[in-house]
Amino acid sequence: MTIFSVQSTIFSRASVVLLSSNGFKRFSFASSFSSSAVYSPPLPKMKKRRYPIVSAVDIGGVTISRNDVVRDDDPTNNVPDSIFSKLGMQLHRRDKHPIGILKNAIYNYFDSNYSKKFEKFDDLSPIVTTKQNFDDVLVPADHVSRSLNDTYYVDSQTVLRCHTSAHQAELLRKGHSRFLVTGDVYRRDSIDSTHYPVFHQMEGFCVFSPEDWNESGKDSTLYAAEDLKKCLEGLARHLFGSVEMRWVDTYFPFTNPSFELEIYFKEDWLEVLGCGVTEQVILKQSGLENNVAWAFGLGLERLAMVLFDIPDIRFFWTSDERFTSQFGKGELGVKFKPYSKYPPCYKDISFWISDSFTENNFCEVVRGIAGDLVEELKLIDQFTNKKGMTSHCYRIVFRSMERSLTDEEVNDLQSKVRDEVQKKLNVELR
Ligand code: FA5
Ligand code: MG
């Protein structure tokens, strides 16, 4: 995990604004938007693995079939069946699921503190245009998040949204000025207990008019930034009571200034949200040039992990009753009781990488084979020999959350991983 973060945090943190006692023990997570790293060239399309899956899903009354999303004939398409199978699951719309319970608790906070002035959207389609996902929110043409390595493309102009910010501009244009958008978002990412290729975000957006800040005597940006922090600190207290948290300065293309909120969880700082004062250009595009606004994007799994004490992000996708039966509609204070932890099984794999090798591609190959049986994937050693060849050694941790894995099963998974990395990633096993 740490290895992956090193790459994707090159630029991000300028300073820790509000430090609590453990302030210097930092641990950061890969996150595509708070990154200014540049685009890497598209990779050749990988052959899809067949899954026994449903052929169509219904999202907000629109039917989406597998062929709409997984296209073997389009070289830009990089959506595997394992991802298609997550479309339409809508965990955030299930009142007894931790993600749905959390969404409703956040709704309650906004309803009671802002007298129901925030409009709520939770069934907007996750299939959006590159204009919505990137251009409308000022993501630069060379930003890393646009690459095929980071984002799932349906075709060259259509993606699975990688953040709920994809809906900001459209809702503003339609005249909405205070809203919450909840939805599933998709990212090619690393594998560990706090990252999953599908997760849920809630976007918040709030537009102010001159009369709002004039009275305060403050400059509009400062007014919005202070209001934003007050709102989110209040939300954190509403959800957690007292919890150790800190603000970190960061960068997003769509906000300035920009911040992240981190919560101390399981002896580390966990980034739970990004936010900031909206770039004026975005407001101007919707005819709101005399206004100022703030926006935030919450990572719902991360907040739910802290709230319900859920140790691994894969739990959200299990249908094991020992998990699902522990949560009930409106029950916020519940702490998850783990039903025995099954033993992990470690397997190492070493290979000479090629120029086109990326860790996200490797993660996707492993997930394609092992699904949720893979808990973590870590680079444990790397070196370059005299001929200039670079070797990577990864440790794969296999563990089921539901049962003990047999040696045979794990050996079989590992042998498939060895076969497929050679075929798909153009690497040479050592
Ligand atoms: C964004 O997605 C911005 N759109 C947030 C934003 C909105 C900023 C509006 C400003 C204004 P970021 O990439 O940092 O930012 O993701 C936001 C949150 O999603 C993170 O803080 C984290 O809680 C969660 N998150 C990111 N990647 C993953 C992942 N792979 N698995 C689970 N949660 C994740
Ligand atoms: Mg982030």
UniProtKB/TrEMBL annotation:
Pfam families assigned to the protein according to its UniProt record, in alphabetical order: FDX-ACB, tRNA-synt_2d
Record GO biological process: phenylalanyl-tRNA aminoacylation
Catalysis performed (reactions): tRNA(Phe) + L-phenylalanine + ATP = L-phenylalanyl-tRNA(Phe) + AMP + diphosphate + H(+)
Entry coiled-coil feature ranges: none
Domain Aminoacyl-transfer RNA synthetases class-II family profile, first and last residues per copy: 125-338
Gene Ontology CC entries for this record: mitochondrial matrix
Entry GO MF terms: ATP binding; phenylalanine-tRNA ligase activity; tRNA binding
Enzyme Commission number(s) of this protein: 6.1.1.20
Chain's role: Is responsible for the charging of tRNA(Phe) with phenylalanine in mitochondrial translation.
Descriptive protein name: phenylalanine--tRNA ligase
